[in-house]
Amino acid sequence: MLEVAFSPVLKVASAYASVANALNVGTLKKLGLIKEGTFQFQETLGSAEKFNRRLDAGTNVPFLFHVFASANLTGFLDPTNEEYFLSWKIDKGSYVTLPGLAENEPITRGTIKLTPLKYVEYFFEFIAHDGKKYYYRGIKNLRSVHAVKAWATLTGSLHNHETEVKILESQVFSNQDPSISGLIPFLRSLRIW
Predict the structure, then answer these.
(1) Does residue 91 share a domain with residue 157?
(2) In the chain, beta strands by DSSP E
(3) What is the model's pTM?
(4) How do residues 86-106 score in pLDDT, each as one tens digit?
(5) Residues 5, 95: one domain?
């Protein structure tokens, strides 16, 4: 009931915030604080059999993927740009390994989206040995009290793209280790060009 009553107020506030953000970003660009460039990183996420259950085969399996990700720096920092704000595109060279389905198969399309203080969402697609298209969706829960483990742990599932059937439930870790040592290669790979 209150949502309906406050809906017009929220819409006006949202429009005002969008205009204010656009002006702020425009000002920062003019001052040279936001420049054209690329924000890049690479990350390997994987785990042993006990963390991943392949539902169609009824077995536990190891699962690994490696991503190269990049973002347009101006769009990444611009809250008025819904498509690129706090988002990276998964680039060529990224791949997936899942025994019996994919062996270093290239990721054909994907994104990584940061929602500050809440989660990081990973989404990507690939074509497996069987010629079928699959997609993976995973979340790093940033609300955890253990910040390092939150950034190093991704929980998700793999689905058949055509049938939407869930194939795999997984929990993977940065460099197969949910600790600061697992995150170090990821942190070293962060670059702004």
Answers:
(1) yes
(2) 38-47, 53-54, 59-60, 63-72, 87-90, 95-98, 102-115, 119-127, 133-141, 153-160, 166-174, 191-192
(3) 0.81
(4) 999 999 999 999 999 999 999
(5) no
